[in-house]
Amino acid sequence: MTETETIAYDVVVLGAGPVGENVADRTRAAGLTTAVVESELVGGECSYWACMPSKALLRPVIAQADARRLPGLRQAVQGPLDAEAILAHRDYFTSDWKDDGQVGWLDGIGADLYRGHGRLTGPRTVAVGDKVLTARHAVAVCTGTRAVLPDLPGLAEVGPWTSREATSAQSVPGRLIVVGGGVVATEMATAWQALGSQVTLLVRGKGLLNRMEPFAGELVAEALTAAGADVRTGTSVKSVTRTDGTVVVVTDTGDRIEADEILFATGRAPRTDDLGLDTVGLQPGSWLPVDDSLRVTGSEWLYAVGDVNRRALLTHQGKYQARIAGAAIAARASGATDLDAGPWGAHAATADHAAVPQVVFTDPEAAAVGLSLAEAEQAGHRVRAVDVDLSSVAGAGLYGEGYKGRARMVVDLEEEILRGVTFVGPGVGELIHSATVAVAGQVPVARLWHAVPSYPTLSEVWLRLLEAFRDN
Fold it and tell me: What is the pTM of this model?
C-alpha cells in the first residue's frame, strides 16, 4: 500500500491553463506558497486546442483575403493556400503539443506543479495521486470547460470532431460538415473552407453569431457563402451515421448530406464533474456561481475562476478574473477585511458585467464589447443605436478594394456614455480595444470628441459614429 503524503500550501490551484497560471502568478507575487495541479498539458485548452492553434490556422486565410483586396498584389495570391505548411506552422504554435516551456515558466515563478487528476476531499483539501495538498487560504478551481455533443443515437461510433479535433487535425478533409453557428463553428468553417474543404454549415437558429448584433452574423454568413461554403440556417441534425468512412447526415427537413468529417460546435460544459465538489456541499458537474471577487457563493476559501463560473467564456476574460482573484486571495490572506470590491475596484471583476470584449477571427472579423442594442434595452437602459457603414471611412478604401463592414455604438441617452460597440469588417479586431477603453472607462460622449482618430485609418470610424449621433 502506498503511503499518502500530506503537503501544506497557502493556495492550491486546480488547472494549469492560462487562468490557473495567472492565479498562481498573482499569489506567488504576493509571497503565498502555491501548488498547481494539472491532468493534461500545462497551458490548457487555449494553448493547444483553442486560441493559439485556431488563430494559427486562420491568420494565413485572413492575410490572403486581405491581399486579394489590393491591386498589384491580388494576382500574386490567387493560388491555393499551402495547407501542409499552415498545419506545420500551427504545430509550431502548439509546441507540438508539448508543455516543457510552460512547465519552465511555472517553475520560474516558484509554483509547484503536480501532474494528475486533482479532487477535493473536503474543505481546503485536494488529493492528487498519492499526495494530499492542503490550502491554508484558498483553493481555486480553474478547470475550464469541455465540448458538449448532442444526444444523437450512434454518434460516438461516427467519431465526430469537437473543437479539439478541428484545431489539431493533421490533414484537410475533402468535405466537412460543421454543426453550429457560434464562434467555433464560424471560425473553423472559415479556416477549413480556405484550406481546401467543401464546408457545409448547419445552423439550428436563424443566423450566425447570435450573441452579437444581428448584422455581424449576416455579414459573416454572406462572406462564407461567397467563399464557397454551403450555409444552411434553421436546420437541425436528425441523424448521423458513418459508412465506409463517409459521414451521412439527415436533417430535420429530410436533406441528406455526405462528408468526410463532421464537427459539432454546439456548446460547452464545465469540467467539474469529477472534482469532488460533493465533499464540500456542491453539485458535481455544475457551473460554480461566484461573487465579483471570484469566490464561490457561500464559501470562505473556494474560488472558481474562468470558464467554470460561466460569467464570460473567453481566455482573456478568464485571465482578467485570475488577476482579480489572485489579488483578492492575497488581500484576505494578509488579514484584510475591507476589500476594494465596489464596481471597478481592485478586487471586483466588474468588466464581466459591463465590458467583455470579443473578436471572431472570420473574414470579415466581428468584434464587440459591452451590450448589444437588444441587451441594453432588456437591461432597462434608455439607449440609441448609431450605425455607420465602415466603407465610408477613407482608411477602409485603402485597406482594400470592395471593403464591406459596419459599426454600431449603443449610447446610453441618460448617462451619455457607451453601453456597447460592435465592428464588423476586415481588420476590425485591432479596433476593439479602443472601444473597450471607452466602455470600461465610461468615457462621456462629449469627451470622445477630443479623442482624435488618426487619418487615414479605420479608427476614423469613431469620428463618423460621433457625427451620426450628433446629427440624427
Answer: 0.96
